Each structure stands twice: as structure tokens, then as C-alpha cells.
Request: fold
Amino acid sequence: MSGQRALQHWIGGAEAAGDGQERIDVVNPATNAVIADAPAGTAADVDRAVAAAQRALPQWSAVPASERAAAIARIADGIKGTIDSFASTVTSEMGSPISYAKVMQAELPSQVVSSFAAVADGFTWEEELGNALVVREPIGVVGAITPWNAPLYQTVAKVAPALLAGCTVVLKPSVATPLTAALFAEVTAAAGIPAGVFNVVYGAGSVVGEAIAGHQGIDMVSFTGSTGAGKQVSIAATNTVKRVALELGGKSANVILDDADLQRAVDIGLEFAWLNGGQTCAAWTRMLVPAHRHDEIVELAVAAAASYGVGDPTDPATRIGPMSSTAQQGRVSRYIERGIADGATVAFGGSGPVEGLEHGAYVRPTIFANVAPDAVIAQEEIFGPVLSVIPYADEDEAVAIANNSIYGLGGAVFGEPDHALAVAKRMRTGQVIVNGGEFNLTAPFGGYKQSGNGRELGRTGVEEFLELKAIHR
Ligand code: NAD
Reply:
């Protein structure tokens, strides 16, 4: 298509043409129109970006931490000054509804960057341990591989702490969301980040992603994405013995206890299941409810679901936009059909196209009732607006069902506060939100089990990018 934006890699502080000729289209899932294209990067492109990052490393790691923190604060300001552009870019690339995109896809990432600038204050870079001096040093060149569902957030959750630690970065964004990465590269340049400290190589996971994971010149790979791809990254990285930090999929349980405020538990529960069209890693896709209150809770959920309008993601009233792509639409639709075939009750939504929205990647938000804990829809990550309500007989069974998953990323408990806290402590998951408590951006974020092995955000998020050196005197 003539006139559409043609991206180039970002290497050594400037746009750089790719080694190959192949391009990858960027498609707006609300219309299925091609809106831009990006280079299908190659291993040679990764080599060039790694060389730029290696060249920039000695100087950047020698910059005092307070100055690196000031640079990160300028990045935060740059994002804050570009909120509307980031929000509309994410909306056009992956269909996130604009009202949500503004808050969660643009403002939240700016707050994450600010929070890292603040972590620098009082950070312990060196400490005395008897006769040893323990020094924290940047790990080196970091490969950052990110998914499409929260493209700016996932980028800054890696890039800001890596830069603060004194590392340099080669980013590979998802093929679905390169425009957000390009806008972020502009923000880093405007913030005065020196050439080569931050680089972007676009392209497929199987080519660019694997080249990053297996690269001898990359000291650490920080990966966010599906559990399957995370395993491939680990395999590709093995021979280099680099550090591999993985933030992977989830199938989080929202445990509603007998003594919970049911209306609140259901309202917040549905919101956290369907945020971003259900395309969030920690989505509370399993609602665990006391069996004797199952029907009452399903009724409340169905009533709440009526306020989730599906439609054009650029309309501020839209709560659920299209899925991020027709591939994702197909995947979610197949899971809805599988749930029906396996005998779960469709309480809301169901399979089939959304009337009047056949031109985009839309699905019908769906609530399944009476779902068996081992059903496919209760075990596999669907990554769409599909909620499974699962009855439990008693609290021990609730905990057992919550933990009956290969994943352990997020979760929630609603109930009398001390009671809910006690149940939260029994959940094998990296974070639990009790009674809708506010998400703390400085607390460690990451997964148990096959949800990953890393921890992002706050002080722990910076420590991921540091080596420890002991100097014995
Ligand atoms: P994905 O795994 O398909 O892709 C993620 C990234 O990895 C992309 O950049 C992709 O190109 C790359 N990739 C794919 N195969 C690769 C390989 N073999 N080697 C190297 N790189 C490879 O995931 P997605 O569909 O983009 O995103 C959705 C997934 O991400 C969901 O599973 C979701 O739960 C997960 N996610 C996790 C978190 C978290 O913090 N734990 C946050 C957001 C999303």
C-alpha cells in the first residue's frame, strides 16, 4: 500500500535498513487494514545491533547511577508528553480500547518508568560484608523480547531497569506492535540516551528472537511471552549460559470466599478477567465460587457482563475491542467452541461472529458456568474475554483448584480480610490481589511454575540486570 509508514530498525541511535528485503505488515485488527510495515530482521541485523550495544556499554555503565536515573526520568517525561500518541498507536496496532489504552497502555508505563527513576534513590550498589566488598555491576548487553498485549509496558518494564543498572539493550518487539517500539525509540533519543544504548530489531521470534537468545555477545535475555516460546528461548540460550529471565503465561484464579462481598468480588473479578479483551497475562480467567452460591454468582456476572460493550476500539465507550489479530480471534473462538463441546454451560456470549463487526477480529465475550477444574478451558491460557466459573465444595478444595495449574502468575481472593490473606498465602502464584487491593508498582512481579522465573518492577526488577562481585580484602 503506498503512503503507509515503513519502519526501519533502530541501531546505534539512528534508523537502519535491514539486511534482507522482506517486510512484515502491521494490521489494524479492528478493520484488518494494513497500516504500516516493518523489516523482517535477520541474524545479521541482530549482529549489528549487538555490536552497537557492546560499543556503547563501557561508557554507559560508567555514567554515575544518579545520571542514569535522571535520563530515565526524562524518558518518563517523554512518555507523559506523548500519552495520546502512544494510546492511539497501541489501539491501532492491537485493538486495545482507547479509554483503557490511555490509562493502562500509556499512563501506567510512564509511571513504571518514573518508579524506576525513584528506585535509584538509596539503591545499594556496594555493601561491606566483613572483609568483603560486595559490588553490584551491570550484567552487560541485554536482549529484551516482548509480546503485543501491553507493548509499551512490557518494553519499559525491561528497558528502564536495564538502563538504570548500566546495561545496554537490544529490543525485539512483537511483529504485531512495532509502531509502539518505534515511538519509544524516538522518546529515548529525545531523552538524550546515547547512541547504541538502546536498539530495536524488528522481526519474527523464530529468527530475530532466537538469534538474540543464542547470541554470544548478549549477556542476558529478558523474555515476556507465551510459555511455549519461553521454553524455546531457554533452549536457544543454553550454550551461551546467559541469564534467562522469563515472564510467561497464566491462568489465574479468583477465589471468592463465602464471606466475600459478592457484588464487589464479581464486578472486580469480571473486570480483571476481561481487561484488554482478556489479553492480559495475569487475567483472572477462573472464578472459583462456593458451590451453594454458584447460581447467584453467575447471575451477578451475567448482569455485570451486559455493560461490556464490544466495538470500535477508537470509541471511548468501548470496553472490549477486537482481538489483536485474526489469528488470535481464531484461537479464542476455538476455545469457546471447545468449552461448549466439553459440556460447560454458556451463561453469556458464546461462539459465532459479533453481529455488525464481521470486518474485524472480534469475538463474543463469554462466561461459562459449572466448568470442571480439569476442563481444557480451565487449564489452558485462552487470552481472550472468556471467564470460567468453577464451583468448589470447601476452602481446601478451592485452594487445590486454584493451584491445579501448570501456571502460577496472578490470582485474587475476596473475603473477610484476615481470612482472605490466609487463603492468599496458600496460593502458589507470584502475586495475589486481596479484595481488589491497589497494584503496587514497586513490588516484585513474576510467576511461579511455568509462568516464569524472573521478577520485574521495583528494586527486584533492577537487581535482575546486575551481577554480584565479591572483593575480598
Ligand atoms: P509469544 O510467545 O508468541 O511472543 C512473545 C515474543 O516472543 C514475541 O516478540 C515473539 O516474536 C517472540 N518469540 C516467539 N517465538 C520465539 C522464539 N522461538 N524465540 C525467541 N523469541 C520468540 O507471545 P504473544 O502472543 O506475543 O503474547 C502473549 C503471551 O505473552 C501470553 O502467553 C501471555 O500470558 C504472555 N505474557 C506474559 C506476561 C508476564 O509478565 N508474565 C506479560 C504479558 C504477556
